[in-house]
Amino acid sequence: MASLKGIGSSVVPTDLVDFEPDEGLVAVAVFDDYVKAGDAGLAILAMGNAYWMILHDERYVICVVKNRYAAISAELDVLVALEAGRVRGARFEYQEFDFGWRSFALYAAVLIACFVWQGRADIVSVGRVDSVAMVQGSQWSRAVTALTLHADVVHLVSNLISGMGFAFFVCRFFGAAAGWLLVLLSGIAGNVLNAVVYYPELHYSIGASTAVFGALGLLTGIGIWAAVLDPDHRLLLPRWLVPLFGGLTLLGLFGVGDGNVDVAAHISGFVCGVVFGALGACVQRWFSVLQRWSVACSALSLGLLALAWYARAGA
């Protein structure tokens, strides 16, 4: 909307001094954009009033009958206020970051190295999720170490591919170092939640899939927050349900199945990821600052893994 000015019945806006409406009409608004002028016209029609759109000096002037000027002008003022509120506070705006291909190589290197390690040493029993040991014995470091263990090559490759796929978009939104840290934290929180849910029943779990579905949850949380702030409400359903249904669909397709699939771990990681994703999206601009501390974020992620394994090795 270029301008929208209240004017008297015998006065026109100062930038339209040479504009002379037809007898009985008065200019109520002027626009540079035809679409926005049409939107204002629709608002006038919705009030049950007629309007005339006149092209003048490459601008669109909305004219109405004089005796309806006051009511229409007040209605258009409300329209302007709503539009201004959307632009300033409602629309979801975000910055995209470099996904950092080195971080993906590091992710693969860590998982492959741990897989080779577990083939040469008996580390599964001390590193896996153990609901009783974690809740009753306070061995919470297992929530971290379990993410680096896998049952076989297929399990490993599956988590490598799917993890990189989801993490790519997470890193584009939060940055490489911060994005991977959030994925890791989602996986850790998911394993903790999974152990708490199963306790006092004994339950074992391994695999990076909790973090993988944490990454999916992060994307879903971002989508939910974006939909809540998006001013475009053309759907009958609340817009935040769209990314939620999308995330749940992917969770159902890939996170639930027969055999040794730990459904509860996948759901736990997903739920924690949704929470972290929505919270992170609230303050996405802060992640611009975190780009300066990418080395520190990377060190924190690797440090969590190293400290967790150090604690398990000494157990």
Summarize, please.
This protein is mainly α and 315 residues long.
Search tags:
315 residues; mainly alpha; Alpha-Beta Plaits; Rhomboid-like fold; three-stranded antiparallel β-sheet; two-stranded antiparallel ribbon; 5 strands; disordered N terminus
What does this 3D model show about the protein?
This protein is mainly α and 315 residues long. It folds into 2 domains: 14-90, Hypothetical protein rpa1041 (Alpha-Beta Plaits, 2-Layer Sandwich); 101-313, Rhomboid-like fold, CATH 1.20.1540. Helix content is 61%, strand content 7%. A 3-stranded antiparallel sheet has the order 1-3-2, with helices on one face. It has a two-stranded antiparallel sheet with strand order 4-5.
Number of strands: 5
In terms of per-residue confidence, which ranges show pLDDT below 50 for 5 or more consecutive residues? 1-12, 85-90, 233-237
- Report the β-strand fraction as a percent range: 5-15%
Give the strand order of the largest sheet, numbering strands 1, 2, ... along the chain. 1-3-2
Strand and helix order: EHEEHHHEHHHHEHHHHH
Sum up the overall morphology in one term. elongated
Which architecture of the largest domain does the CATH hierarchy give at level 2? Up-down Bundle
Q: How far is the first residue's CA from the last residue's CA?
A: 67 Å
Task: Outline the secondary-structure elements.
Elements: E1 25-31, H1 34-46, E2 52-56, E3 59-65, H2 69-90, H3 101-120, H4 124-127, E4 129-130, H5 131-135, H6 142-145, H7 153-174, H8 176-198, E5 204-205, H9 209-229, H10 241-254, H11 263-282, H12 286-290, H13 294-313
Antiparallel strand pairs: 1-3, 2-3, 4-5
Helix pairs in contact: 3-7, 7-8, 7-9, 8-9, 8-11, 8-13, 9-10, 9-11
